[in-house]
Amino acid sequence: MRAVDRQLSAIVADLQAVEQRLRLLQDSLPRRVWCQPPAAGRWSPADCVAHLNLTSSTALPLIREGLRDAANSGKESASRYRRDVVGWLVWKLIAPSNRLRSRMDDFARLQSELIGCVREADQLPIDRVTVRSPYDARLTCNLYAALTLIPRHQQRHVLQAERAAAGVLGSELSPATV
Protein backbone atom coordinates (compact mmCIF):
# COMPACT_ATOMS: atom_id res chain seq x y z
CA MET A 1 0.00 0.00 0.00
CA ARG A 2 1.34 3.44 -0.93
CA ALA A 3 2.03 6.04 1.77
CA VAL A 4 -0.76 8.24 0.39
CA ASP A 5 -3.24 5.35 0.55
CA ARG A 6 -2.24 4.72 4.18
CA GLN A 7 -2.60 8.39 5.05
CA LEU A 8 -6.11 8.64 3.61
CA SER A 9 -7.09 5.28 5.11
CA ALA A 10 -5.98 6.60 8.51
CA ILE A 11 -8.32 9.60 8.16
CA VAL A 12 -11.22 7.31 7.23
CA ALA A 13 -10.42 5.04 10.20
CA ASP A 14 -10.34 8.06 12.54
CA LEU A 15 -13.71 9.29 11.25
CA GLN A 16 -15.24 5.83 11.65
CA ALA A 17 -13.79 5.46 15.16
CA VAL A 18 -15.36 8.76 16.24
CA GLU A 19 -18.75 7.68 14.94
CA GLN A 20 -18.44 4.33 16.74
CA ARG A 21 -17.52 6.03 20.03
CA LEU A 22 -20.50 8.35 19.77
CA ARG A 23 -22.86 5.47 18.94
CA LEU A 24 -21.59 3.52 21.96
CA LEU A 25 -22.04 6.58 24.17
CA GLN A 26 -25.54 7.21 22.85
CA ASP A 27 -26.54 3.57 23.30
CA SER A 28 -25.22 3.48 26.87
CA LEU A 29 -26.93 6.62 28.15
CA PRO A 30 -30.52 7.26 29.16
CA ARG A 31 -32.07 9.93 26.92
CA ARG A 32 -32.29 12.43 29.78
CA VAL A 33 -28.51 12.16 30.32
CA TRP A 34 -27.83 12.48 26.57
CA CYS A 35 -29.55 15.87 26.54
CA GLN A 36 -28.53 17.11 30.00
CA PRO A 37 -25.45 19.31 30.49
CA PRO A 38 -23.30 18.37 33.49
CA ALA A 39 -23.44 21.95 34.81
CA ALA A 40 -24.81 25.35 33.86
CA GLY A 41 -23.03 26.77 30.84
CA ARG A 42 -21.60 23.37 29.82
CA TRP A 43 -22.53 21.29 26.78
CA SER A 44 -24.50 18.07 26.99
CA PRO A 45 -23.40 15.08 24.88
CA ALA A 46 -26.15 16.01 22.40
CA ASP A 47 -24.79 19.57 22.22
CA CYS A 48 -21.36 18.18 21.33
CA VAL A 49 -22.86 16.17 18.46
CA ALA A 50 -24.83 19.20 17.27
CA HIS A 51 -21.59 21.19 17.19
CA LEU A 52 -19.86 18.47 15.18
CA ASN A 53 -22.77 18.35 12.73
CA LEU A 54 -22.60 22.10 12.24
CA THR A 55 -18.83 21.91 11.73
CA SER A 56 -19.10 19.10 9.18
CA SER A 57 -21.92 20.86 7.32
CA THR A 58 -19.77 23.97 7.07
CA ALA A 59 -16.58 22.12 6.09
CA LEU A 60 -18.02 19.82 3.41
CA PRO A 61 -18.56 22.49 0.71
CA LEU A 62 -15.03 23.79 1.26
CA ILE A 63 -13.58 20.29 1.07
CA ARG A 64 -15.49 19.56 -2.13
CA GLU A 65 -14.22 22.81 -3.64
CA GLY A 66 -10.67 21.87 -2.66
CA LEU A 67 -11.11 18.43 -4.24
CA ARG A 68 -12.29 20.06 -7.49
CA ASP A 69 -9.29 22.41 -7.41
CA ALA A 70 -6.92 19.48 -6.82
CA ALA A 71 -8.49 17.44 -9.62
CA ASN A 72 -8.25 20.38 -12.04
CA SER A 73 -4.78 21.55 -10.99
CA GLY A 74 -2.90 19.41 -13.47
CA LYS A 75 -0.44 18.52 -10.69
CA GLU A 76 0.47 15.00 -9.69
CA SER A 77 -0.05 13.69 -6.21
CA ALA A 78 3.05 13.47 -4.04
CA SER A 79 4.18 10.08 -2.77
CA ARG A 80 3.37 11.31 0.75
CA TYR A 81 1.01 14.09 1.84
CA ARG A 82 2.27 16.79 4.16
CA ARG A 83 0.39 19.30 6.29
CA ASP A 84 1.37 22.91 5.84
CA VAL A 85 2.48 24.96 8.85
CA VAL A 86 -0.95 26.38 9.68
CA GLY A 87 -2.66 23.01 9.32
CA TRP A 88 -0.05 21.33 11.53
CA LEU A 89 -0.32 24.02 14.20
CA VAL A 90 -4.12 23.86 14.38
CA TRP A 91 -3.95 20.03 14.36
CA LYS A 92 -1.66 20.15 17.42
CA LEU A 93 -3.80 22.74 19.21
CA ILE A 94 -7.08 20.84 18.90
CA ALA A 95 -5.86 17.53 20.28
CA PRO A 96 -8.53 15.87 22.45
CA SER A 97 -6.37 16.15 25.56
CA ASN A 98 -6.18 19.95 25.23
CA ARG A 99 -8.67 21.46 27.09
CA LEU A 100 -28.83 23.16 18.75
CA ARG A 101 -29.81 19.60 19.43
CA SER A 102 -29.20 17.17 16.59
CA ARG A 103 -29.79 13.50 15.89
CA MET A 104 -27.08 10.88 15.49
CA ASP A 105 -28.59 10.11 12.09
CA ASP A 106 -27.42 13.53 10.91
CA PHE A 107 -23.96 12.83 12.30
CA ALA A 108 -23.80 9.45 10.54
CA ARG A 109 -24.90 11.00 7.23
CA LEU A 110 -22.34 13.80 7.46
CA GLN A 111 -19.66 11.33 8.52
CA SER A 112 -20.44 9.25 5.43
CA GLU A 113 -20.12 12.33 3.23
CA LEU A 114 -16.79 13.24 4.83
CA ILE A 115 -15.49 9.70 4.30
CA GLY A 116 -16.62 9.91 0.67
CA CYS A 117 -14.62 13.11 0.24
CA VAL A 118 -11.53 11.54 1.79
CA ARG A 119 -11.83 8.58 -0.58
CA GLU A 120 -12.32 10.94 -3.51
CA ALA A 121 -9.00 12.59 -2.62
CA ASP A 122 -7.02 9.46 -3.57
CA GLN A 123 -4.37 10.26 -6.19
CA LEU A 124 -5.11 14.01 -6.03
CA PRO A 125 -2.51 16.63 -5.02
CA ILE A 126 -4.53 17.65 -1.96
CA ASP A 127 -1.48 18.96 -0.16
CA ARG A 128 -0.94 21.43 -3.01
CA VAL A 129 -4.30 23.19 -2.89
CA THR A 130 -5.34 25.63 -0.21
CA VAL A 131 -8.70 25.92 1.53
CA ARG A 132 -9.91 28.79 3.68
CA SER A 133 -11.23 28.32 7.18
CA PRO A 134 -15.01 28.70 7.40
CA TYR A 135 -14.51 30.38 10.78
CA ASP A 136 -11.71 32.86 10.08
CA ALA A 137 -11.11 33.97 6.48
CA ARG A 138 -7.53 34.91 7.35
CA LEU A 139 -6.72 31.28 8.15
CA THR A 140 -5.87 28.89 5.30
CA CYS A 141 -4.24 25.48 5.12
CA ASN A 142 -3.79 22.79 2.52
CA LEU A 143 -6.64 20.37 1.90
CA TYR A 144 -4.74 17.39 3.35
CA ALA A 145 -4.27 19.28 6.62
CA ALA A 146 -7.96 20.28 6.60
CA LEU A 147 -9.00 16.64 6.17
CA THR A 148 -6.84 15.59 9.12
CA LEU A 149 -8.25 18.38 11.29
CA ILE A 150 -11.82 17.10 11.10
CA PRO A 151 -11.38 13.81 12.99
CA ARG A 152 -9.04 15.55 15.43
CA HIS A 153 -11.74 18.11 16.18
CA GLN A 154 -14.34 15.35 16.44
CA GLN A 155 -12.21 13.36 18.87
CA ARG A 156 -11.95 16.41 21.09
CA HIS A 157 -15.73 16.83 21.24
CA VAL A 158 -16.44 13.12 21.70
CA LEU A 159 -14.20 13.25 24.75
CA GLN A 160 -16.15 16.32 25.89
CA ALA A 161 -19.43 14.42 25.38
CA GLU A 162 -18.10 11.45 27.35
CA ARG A 163 -17.00 13.73 30.17
CA ALA A 164 -20.38 15.51 30.16
CA ALA A 165 -22.18 12.19 30.47
CA ALA A 166 -19.84 11.10 33.26
CA GLY A 167 -20.47 14.41 35.04
CA VAL A 168 -24.23 13.96 34.92
CA LEU A 169 -24.08 10.30 35.90
CA GLY A 170 -21.55 11.01 38.65
CA SER A 171 -23.74 13.70 40.17
CA GLU A 172 -26.62 11.22 40.32
CA LEU A 173 -24.70 8.71 42.46
CA SER A 174 -25.54 8.80 46.12
CA PRO A 175 -22.84 8.13 48.75
CA ALA A 176 -24.49 4.77 49.47
CA THR A 177 -23.98 3.61 45.85
CA VAL A 178 -20.35 4.69 45.56
List key phrases describing it.
6 helices; Four Helix Bundle (Hemerythrin (Met), subunit A); mainly alpha; two-stranded antiparallel ribbon; 178 residues; disordered C terminus
Give your account of this protein's structure.
The chain is mainly alpha-helical and 178 residues long. The protein has one domain (3-165): Up-down Bundle (Four Helix Bundle (Hemerythrin (Met), subunit A)). Helix content is 63%, strand content 3%. The protein has six helices and two strands; from the N terminus they run αααααββα. The chain has helices at 3-28, 31-34, 45-72, 85-93, 104-120, 143-171, and strands at residues 130-132, 140-142. It has a two-stranded antiparallel ribbon with strand order 1-2. Strand 1 (130-132) and strand 2 form a beta hairpin. Helix 1 (3-28) runs parallel beside helix 6 (143-171), helix 3 (45-72) packs parallel to helix 5 and helix 3 runs antiparallel to helix 6. The protein is elongated, with a radius of gyration of 18 Å. The model is unreliable at 98-102 and 173-178 (pLDDT under 50).
SSE map:
Elements: H1 3-28, H2 31-34, H3 45-72, H4 85-93, H5 104-120, E1 130-132, E2 140-142, H6 143-171
Antiparallel strand pairs: 1-2
Taking strands numbered 1, 2, ... along the chain, how are they ordered across the largest sheet? Answer: 1-2
Task: Please tell me the overall pLDDT.
Answer: 88
Spans of 5+ residues with little confidence (pLDDT < 50)? Answer: 98-102, 173-178
Q: Roughly how many Å is the radius of gyration?
A: 18 Å
Question: What's the CATH first level?
Answer: Mainly Alpha
Number of DSSP-assigned strands: 2
Named CATH topology? Four Helix Bundle (Hemerythrin (Met), subunit A)
* C-alpha termini separation: 50 Å
User: What is the count of helical runs?
Assistant: 6
The overall number of domains is 1
Shape verdict:
elongated
How large is the share of residues in beta strands?
under 5%
Q: Can you tell me the CATH architecture?
A: Up-down Bundle
Elements, N to C (H/E): HHHHHEEH
Helix content: 55-70%
Backbone structural class: mainly alpha
Q: Major β-sheet, in short? A: 2 strands, antiparallel
